Amino acid sequence: MRKVTITKLSKPVKDFLAQARKGRGILVQDENGRARFGVVRYVEASAAAKERAWKDIERIQRKVGRMMRKTGKTEEEFDRLLQEEEA
Description:
The protein has three helices and two strands. By secondary structure, the chain is mostly helical.
């Protein structure tokens, strides 16, 4: 991914992206109507939301750890199971 500051963008690009800033996403399609790019405004989570998310992750990790110990499974087995589900 390439990062660029808004100030380095040309005025037409800034004007185009301003549509996404107004809360509307932008879907760029090719000549055949197939979606090629999507542009959405990035909204950073609040500090409170980030803290809640980390607490949720830690809670899930504890649950998984307890279940792995209870069933005698290893982290490698758990990882393999997750990868199989994603395939």
